[in-house]
Design a protein that fits this description.
Elements (H helix, E strand, L loop, with lengths): L6 H14 L2 H7 E9 L4 E4 H15 E13 L3 E12 L4 E14 L2 E14 L3
Helix pairs in contact: 1-2
Length: about 130
């Protein structure tokens, strides 16, 4: 029998996976047919394979990641968070700061849809 996680625990696992670029956790917390919607970029990733490919790319380009988040609300099958991230982007050769919101929809113990919107700023490294 699978352990039942709270929505808050699943959200925290998502951010832990981001901090550690942990594909094993991504596999555990998303449904096979999950959607990952990046509203800021008008991009939709469909299915766990596309999500994993996106994460692999980010793990190679995001260095010295600092990340914070807060769960702002949980409802029947959804949760909402605010987050801030800062990292060195090796492709842009810049420090990137991101502030945004994420809504999570759940099917049981897994994320079936994630929608994020963020504002991004870049600056030259010191």
């Amino acid at each position: 029998m699978e352990y039942m996680c709270s929505k808050n625990e699943i959200v925290n696992l998502y951010f832990k996976a981001w901090l550690e670029y942990d594909l094993h956790l991504i596999d555990k917390i998303f449904t096979m047919s999950a959607s990952y919607i990046i509203l800021s970029r008008k991009k939709i990733l469909r299915g766990k394979k596309q999500i994993e490919t996106y994460w692999i790319r980010n793990s190679k380009r995001q260095k010295n990641l600092n990340l914070s988040w807060e769960v702002n609300g949980e409802f029947d099958d959804c949760a909402f968070t605010t987050f801030s991230a800062e990292f060195y982007d090796i492709e842009l050769e810049s420090v990137v700061s991101i502030n945004g919101i994420i809504s999570f929809l759940f099917e049981g113990n897994r994320i079936s849809s994630l929608s994020e919107y963020y504002k991004k700023t870049t600056r030259c490294p010191n």
